[in-house]
Design brief:
The complex is a heterodimer.
Chain A lengths: L1 H28 L3 H30 L6 H6 L6 H6 L5 H21 L9 H21 L6 E5 L6 E3 L6 E3 L16 H15 L1 H13 L5 H31 L10 H26 L3 H23 L15 H21 L16 H33 L3 E3 L1 H21 L10 H24 L5 H30 L4 H11 L1 H26 L1 E7 L4 E4 L2 E12 L5 E11 L2 E6 L2 E5 L4 E5 L1 E4 L3 E10 L7 E9 L2 H18 L5 H19 L1
Antiparallel strand pairs in A: 1-2, 1-3, 5-14, 6-7, 7-8, 8-9, 8-10, 10-11, 12-13, 13-14
Chain B lengths: L2 H27 E6 H6 L1 H4 L4 E15 L4 E7 L5 H6 L3 H10 L5 E7 L11 E8 L5 E9 L8 H7 L3
Parallel strand pairs in B: 1-2, 4-6
Antiparallel strand pairs in B: 2-3, 2-5, 3-4, 5-6
Classes of the chains: A alpha+beta, B alpha/beta.
């Protein structure tokens, strides 16, 4: 019953989205506002309807309706309730529905805003977002239906998956479901996919406005002002999604790392990279009226990389790099990407001359020039990463032989580019808009550079001798000191005007949220870079089989194997857990419990590491194997991951910075009045 | 030189650096991706070279010595082309047939390290390493994929006969 209702709501939502596209386009073409209003109402209606579809599928998941194929494939009776809910995005059909629901939520919010000033954008924003939604809903309706049920047909051994009963079929209900992939049974999985998807979907909104601006010919920076916060929100969600994914990989996958340059990871990183470039380059358009074409190109790329990323992360292709287009939805996705990309470029070329700017970049060291270089480096990383993903296909087309590239390719090719980004991050905040001289920049850079050099010397004195980490340390230190100096200068200026230190600090940030929010994001990146350099260059590992009460040493660390505990957990998995004491310089610093879970329902073991974290490094223990009865002992693999904790701390700083930058400015009129008053006060003070 | 030109020189250097990085890194880390048949057919060419192969894990051949962390197993040839796999009834079916067919080409694999969780009968293994003179494949990295267990798995249950 719920399955039919859910499917029915999907059909209605799909028809409404198709109607909204037609009505909005017709209304704009014939200047018939009533049609546009009708389209807007259709969009408003889609959200409650899709919410109903979403509730239906969650209801089916929660109540073990295994006759629904999707429910049987991702849940089982033993799973706790929260996992049954997260099973919504545990498979392809459910995640596509979730994607569509997010899209409808965002467009619902968008339709409720006041459109008085920007009415000409409205029909085209509806067209772009609803075409996207219709595509995803169409996938759910015609290819990956989450409500399809299982039917037993006489004479056939296997049940048929179909929405409506085939002739002579009876509903088939398996006794239990398969259960969610154990890898996804982790609290990190509650948040990671929704964050990633919210980021993906939110980037559709700036793209829709960009296209509306190209279609209507209103090619000023208005579309950027209108969507700045959407772009920042998208970027924040995508960043959170990526970071949570890294953390999940570190906590659950038990290989000692957090980023493996898997094609799925790369495909989520690609829109983040173009999105980051976009956030930087729109500032130049807002300030200097430059790079208008470029911003269009970036948002088009981001949109199509979002679609590409959704496809790759959700098409069932795993680590196998050559397994593109394995599912039925592959050609549809590539078709959709091809069509939207071509159409967007056509619209851009049509308006090419309107977007031309009389202004030029005046100086090679000006803020806008450095931002442009920053954009090029970001695009360089995009090209490298995209090359890594498509190289196997290209090589097969050209030579007939599959040739792949692995993580070393990405590390070698992106490492220097990331270093260049750090350098630009260190210099750009000091350069001025418009014109910058070498002398002025040199003067500002002098002290941070000296301090960064001192930092490197201290590190060398502490025994760091490798070349690349020292270069990295210099760049990280330079960017950190420059950013801190910006805060210092701002606070000092305010204190001279009589503000106390905490007030000055608070006001500095609150009155220039975009600027100082951005700097806080930079500091977050600096901290993450510290962690990445530490783990990339200084990680160590060892493995050994030891008897009970035996010991493994690794650098300053040592561990002893104290006991083995075996039991059955409440959700039916069998747990074998080692009790391990961790020693640093012969002093006991903690206990960890690396374990191996065995999921009986899916016959799948999972290795969960035990980690002892500190500011300086993580000691990471994996239980590889054990002898349950004899005293033979157990095999452990241990890693020391220097500075890895700074990645997570940096990520938190990064998020706080983004929130500050995205926080709504007070009413512009009030802000202008306040500034005026302040100027008057200052003028009085001087006179 | 005008500022505009200087700017383009800067842009050119970044573009050149990206192209150089891509080519040098590709050259240094490109690996042939082969099926078992392809590897065995061109043995002479690939012995000692770093390559990546794929095959179906034969469950009963898995031997693991936790003392030395030595893992040995045999893989059977599966086609490398996705189209062919789809035509033959999907990955799960192709893997099943590969493991049960005694006439398939087999390859013995040796790996040192923890035993991967997903290593089991009829898993698809994607293995990075090199073929030794002795005809054994020495693996540096194992990636495993079990298509039969998630998403596709409902038919399995029916065969189990719960009705």
């Amino acid at each position: 019953m719920l399955a039919e209702v859910g499917y029915g709501t999907l059909v209605i939502a799909w028809l409404l989205s198709v109607y909204a596209v037609g009505a909005a386009a017709y209304g704009a073409w014939r200047t018939r506002p009533e049609w546009i209003e009708s389209a807007r109402r259709a969009v408003l209606l889609i959200w409650p309807i899709l919410t109903f579809a979403l509730v239906s599928i969650v209801g089916l998941l929660l109540t073990n309706q295994f006759q629904v194929e999707y429910v049987a494939s991702v849940t089982s009776r033993a799973m706790p309730v929260y996992l049954k809910v997260t099973a919504l995005w545990g498979g392809q059909a459910g995640s596509l529905l979730f994607w569509s629901w997010l899209m409808s939520t965002f467009t619902f919010v968008l339709m409720l805003r006041s459109w008085e000033r920007d009415g000409e954008f409205l029909p085209w924003v509806i067209v772009v977002t609803m075409v996207t939604l219709a595509f995803f809903l169409g996938l759910n309706l015609f290819v990956e239906n989450p409500f399809a049920r299982l039917w037993a047909v006489g004479g056939m051994r296997q049940p048929i998956k179909a929405m409506f009963p085939p002739r002579g079929a009876v509903l088939y209900t398996p006794a239990d479901g398969n259960g969610l992939n154990p890898l996804l049974r982790h609290p990190g999985m509650i948040l990671h996919p929704p964050m990633l998807y919210a980021g993906f979907v939110a980037f559709v909104i700036p793209y829709a406005f960009a296209m509306a601006s190209l279609i209507t010919g209103r090619t000023d920076a208005r579309w950027i002002h209108l969507t700045r916060r959407w772009a920042l929100a998208a970027w924040l969600f995508l960043s959170l999604g990526l970071i949570l994914g890294m953390r999940w990989s570190y906590d659950v996958l038990g290989w000692g790392g957090y980023w493996g340059w898997d094609p799925v990871e790369v495909s989520a990183l690609l829109p983040w990279l173009t999105g980051t470039a976009f956030l930087h380059s729109v500032m130049i358009q807002e300030k200097e009226e430059l790079l208008k074409h470029w911003n269009m190109v970036l948002i088009i790329l981001t949109y199509d990389l979002v679609i590409f990323g959704t496809f790759l992360t959700r098409s069932g292709v795993l680590s196998s790099v050559h397994a593109f287009a394995q599912s039925a939805i592959g050609p549809l996705f590539f078709g959709f990407i091809g069509i939207t990309f071509t159409l967007s470029l056509y619209l851009l070329l049509r308006r090419w001359n309107d977007l031309k700017s009389d202004l030029r970049i005046e100086s090679l060291l000006s803020r806008e020039a450095l931002f442009t270089f920053n954009n090029m480096v970001f695009m360089g990383i995009v090209v490298v990463a995209f090359w890594g993903v498509i190289f196997p296909i290209l090589s097969e087309l050209v030579t007939g032989q599959k040739v792949t590239v692995g993580p070393p390719f990405y590390q070698k090719a992106t490492g220097p580019l990331f270093a260049l980004l750090l350098l630009l991050m260190g210099i750009a905040p000091l350069s001025a808009w418009g014109y910058a001289s070498v002398r002025r920049l040199g003067r500002l850079l002098r002290w941070p550079a000296v301090l960064a050099a001192l930092t490197v010397i201290v590190l060398m004195a502490l025994g760091v001798t490798k070349g690349w980490p020292l270069v990295g340390a210099f760049l990280v230190a330079l960017a950190a000191y420059v950013t801190l100096a910006e805060f210092f200068r701002g606070v000092r200026a305010r204190m001279k005007r009589g503000e106390a230190l905490p007030t000055a600090f608070f006001h500095l940030i609150a009155r220039n949220r975009r600027r100082y929010g951005g700097y806080i994001v930079h500091l977050g990146v600096v901290l993450m870079a510290v962690g990445i350099i530490g783990t990339q260059f200084f990680a160590s590992e060892t493995q050994a089989t030891i008897p009970l009460h035996g010991k493994i040493a690794l650098g300053h660390y040592a561990m002893t194997y104290d006991a083995l505990q075996q039991f059955r957990a409440s959700d039916g998995r069998l747990v074998a857990r080692a009790v391990v004491s961790v020693y640093k310089d012969s002093r006991k610093v903690g206990m960890v419990y690396p374990r191996r879970d065995f999921y009986v329902d899916s016959q799948q073991p999972m290795t969960i590491p035990g980690v002892r974290s500190s500011w300086l490094d993580d000691f990471y223990v994996i239980l590889v194997d054990w002898q349950p009865i004899s005293t033979e002992g157990a095999t452990f693999k241990v890693f020391r991951q220097p500075l890895v904790g700074w990645i997570w701390i940096g990520a938190l700083v990064f998020i706080v910075g983004t929130l500050i930058a995205a926080w709504p400015e007070p009413d512009p009129a009030a802000a202008a009045a306040r500034q005026k008053a302040a100027r008057r006060r200052r003028a009085t003070a001087i006179s | 030189m005008s500022n505009r030109n200087k700017f383009f020189v800067g842009a050119f250097f970044i573009a050149a650096a990206v192209v150089y990085l891509i080519f040098s890194a590709t050259k240094a880390s490109a690996q042939y991706f082969l099926t078992v048949n392809e590897l065995l057919a061109r043995k002479g060419e690939f012995v000692g070279k770093n390559v990546r192969i794929s095959g179906a894990v034969i469950g009963k051949t898995i031997q693991y010595d936790p003392q030395s962390l030595e893992l040995r197993f045999t893989i059977a040839h599966v086609p490398g082309d996705n189209k062919v796999i789809e035509e033959q009834g999907g990955l799960a079916k192709v893997l099943h047939e590969a493991v049960t067919d005694p006439h398939r080409a087999h390859l013995e694999v040796v790996y040192h390290g923890p035993r991967p969780d997903m290593l089991k009968d009829e898993a698809q293994a994607i293995i990075t390493g090199h073929l030794g003179e002795d005809g054994v494949f020495y693996a540096d990295e194992l990636l495993l994929k079990c298509p039969s267990h998630y998403e596709d798995a409902v038919p399995d249950q029916v065969e189990g006969g719960s009705g």
